[in-house]
Predict the structure.
Amino acid sequence: MTTAPADPALLTITELGAAFRARRLSPVEATRSCLDRIARLDPELHAFITVTADAALDQARAATAELERGRDRGPLHGVPIGLKDLIDTAGVPTTAGSALFADRVPAEDAEVVRRLRDAGCVILGKLNLHEVAYGASGVIGHFPATRNPRSPAHITGGSSSGSAAAVGAGMCYAALGSDTSGSIRVPAALCGIVGFMPSYGLVSLRGVTPLSWSYDHVGPMTRSVRDAALVLQVIAGYDAADLTSIAFPAADYVGGLDAPGPMPRIGVARSHFFDDLHPDVAAAVERALGVLAGLGATLRDVAIAVDDDRTVFRAESWAYHRAHVEASPERYQPETVRRLRTGEAVAAAEYIARLHELQHMRRRAPALFADVDLIVAPTTAIPAPSFAELAERPEDLRPRELVLMRTTRMFDVLGTPGISVPCGTTAAGLPIGLQIIGPPGGDAAVLRLAAAYEAATR
């Protein structure tokens, strides 16, 4: 075998796969490189809750042997990844970031984990998160808060905090996160990586601890758009055993990145989504719009009616956690209990009425794309706050989280696919994200534009 790259953990999945198949690198070497970085970096970053090093090396050895025998399971074969710790993994604690579930060990894999294993992935372990995914900061939980790999004095955003930090720090090549109000896209933006939220129902939620069944999405977090497409290709698809699953037409998300065709018509969602932006965020997004126009996209302003009602979200979160809160409130963080209890007073009739309205909004969502193909907005209005400023004014934590989610949450409501791609940094070096949104089922188009922008700005 020829000499491996100096730091294989920093390759993209595409580069890693090429190295595997050229015998320049093995899955065992890639896995050891990731484990070495975890040992070196994670004591400060706290991205992982559980590292399954022995099992990962066993899986890597099996992948190496299969590839050497000519059994190739596809682009993710032998690729080390991490899982947000609310995704069931057989025989491994799945804690949801809470003391309540600290000793919970599922007997079966979540459907997305089963699909990743079938593709030959190496599972490195379980990643930290904002407790039970109820927050956009990542600072509340039973385990030490994850720190931003670009600036450990700053938060990662949440709730998929560990997933963003692990990918950003090169501790894994990809991670799965979940997104209910922005929990993939927000930390992706704040940590300078790619975060993709698939169309609602495209990726199975079976075996994933819910926050709100009507809004939850599971998706990939990676260092490139192509890597996100590679992971999505494996985890997407109908699951008859999941009541939230939708049978979308099959798509080639990876091949679609290079598909010929005109640049899309882009709607710029200025009202609400561009309000009160940090000056550096505003400047970076305007530059990104200029890049898109330079690629041949046509831009026009569009208006999106924003629904801020959280009745369905609050009611469903309370419904799942009610018995646990009533029996053992001390096993949650106090702020998590406070948030969960906001759903306690939602009456059944109110919930049903609002759920009915949600279904109508989703039926109308394709109309947003009558005159445009995709919509672009900032991922977050502000860069990552520092731990110091949040500690100085703890009463500002929830308001700051709501600011972070202000530009993402509506697309969870509508069930549309969305991606955050890096589009610059602040003067202080903090990452900024650009959000691209497509119609329900338009995941391939979102990825294609994101890849074109990435290629133009890398």
